[in-house]
Amino acid sequence: MAETAKKVLEKKGQGEYEFTPYGEFLSYFHAHIDIFKKLLKAKKNDPAQIEAISKSVKAYMTANIKKTDHFFENLPQFSTMLGVPQGEISSYLNTNFIEVLSKVQEKLKAQELDKINNAPEQQYDRITEEIIEKLNFVFPADTRFAERGILIVLENMKTGEITEPKGLMAESARAALAVSGNSDEKANPSSLSEALAQANAPPPPPVKKSLIPIKEKSILQEIVELFGDTLTGQILEIQIGPPVDPNAKEEEPASDSKDKKDDYEIEDLDFEEESNTPQKQESSSEIPEGLLDDIGGILDFDSTPEPEPEPEDPYLENVQNYTVREYIELTAVISAYQQKADQVGYQNWLRSQPEFEKTVISFRTQLLKEAKAEPVDWNQVFQGISSKTEFTSVSLQALQQKLKNFQLVKMTLDRTITELKKGTPEFMNLVRMAWPHIQKAFFDIPNYEAVQRSLKGILSRVNEENHKKDLTRIFSQALNFIQSKYKD
Q1: DSSP state, residue 272
Q2: pLDDT reading at 397 higher than 50
Q3: What's phi and psi for 306, nearest 5 deg?
Q4: Measured between alpha carbons, how far is 439 from 434 in angstroms, rounded to an integer?
Q5: Distances in Å between the alpha carbon of 227 and those of 162, 216, 364?
C-alpha cells in the first residue's frame, strides 16, 4: 500500500481532521482486539493465556482481514481461536462495540494529531500548497463570492448573509465614498456595501416642467366644488337680538305706577320658626353617637401595614417539566409556517399560544441571534417579559439555560440528518425508516445511558456491516458533541 494511503487522518474543507478509510479500518482492527481481550477476561482466563490468544488472533487478522466486511465474515474462525461460541461472540460485539470503538478512535485520533503537530517541517511540491497550509485559511461552507458595486463580498447561499472585506479593499471603498461626497447621514446605510450601492445608484429621472404655467383655482371655485351640494342660494342677513315682526305695532311704554307695582322686594325666609316641626327632625344632620368612634377605628393611620407576600412563580413547574421533545415539535410548527411563507397564519397561531409558549418562542429568537454573533441583552429581555407576565427571574434564567441545551440538541440532530443524507440510496432508505426512532433516542438527553441503549438497539437491527459502521460513526460524533457542550 502506498505511503499516502497509510494516512490515518486528513484535513477536510472545514479545517477539521477526519479518519481516512485506512484510519477507519485501523480503528475497527484495534477495537476487535480490545473486545476479544475483554471477553476472555470476562471468562476469567489466565492473563498469560489471554495474551497468547490475542497475539494469535492479531496475527490471523493481519494476514486475512483487509476490509471491515471481513470482520463479520471471519466470526467462525474467531470463535474457534477464542474457544467461545459464535453466538456469544456476536452478542458481545453488539453490546460493547460502540463504546470500545469510540474509545479506540479517540485515542487513535489524539495519537495521530500529536504526530502531525510534532512532525518535522514538510517539503512542498508547489508554492501554492505551502501558502494554503501556512495561512491555514478555510473557505466557509455554503459561501460564494459576489459583487456589490466595486466590492467583492462573501455571500452565504443559504441565509443570504453578507461578509464584507476588511483591510485595504475596505479602506479604498471608504476613500471612494469620501471623494464622491456621498456620506449622507440621512440615508444611514447599515453596511459599506449598501453605502456603495447608494452612491452608485443612477440619479432619479428629471421632472419635466411645463412651459405653460398652470392656472390656479380661485377660492370661490374650490368652495363651490367642495360644498356645492349644501349651498342653498338664500340671502344671508345679519341680525342682532331676537327676531322682529315687521307687522307688529310699537307698544307704548308702561306707566310708572305699573313699574312700582311689579317692583317688589324678595324677603329672606325665616326657617327658625319651624324648628320644631317634624320635617326639621327628619332633615336633621345630627351625627349618631358612636359613629366617629367607628370611623376612627377604620382610619387608623398609626397601624403598621402587613408585609406583602412573596410573588408566586406559576411558571417554574412548567419550566422544570419542559422537554426537548416539546421544544423540537414547537420549532417544527414554526418551520412549517416559514416554508409556506404564511406570515398571517403564523401571527394568528402565535396569538393563540399560552404565555409560556410565547416566551419559549421569544427566547428561541434571541438564541438564534446569538448563534449569528449578534449581541443580545438578556437582562432587558428578562425585564420585558417580567413586566408583561408572571414570570420571575428564577424561572426565566432556568428556561434560558434549558432552551440553550435544547437548541444544541436540535442543531446536532439537523447536522446528523445532513450527514446521513450523504449515503447511497439504499442507505438513505434505511435512514428514512429509522429516523423517527433515532430522533426519539436523542429525546432522552441528558440520560446518556438511555440514549446509548436505544441507539444500540437500532444498530442491532442493521444487517449491512457498512451501514452499521457509518451509523456508529455518526451517532458517536453526535453524542460526544452534545455531551461536551450540554450544561445541567
Answers
A1: G
A2: yes
A3: -70, 140
A4: 9
A5: 57, 19, 58
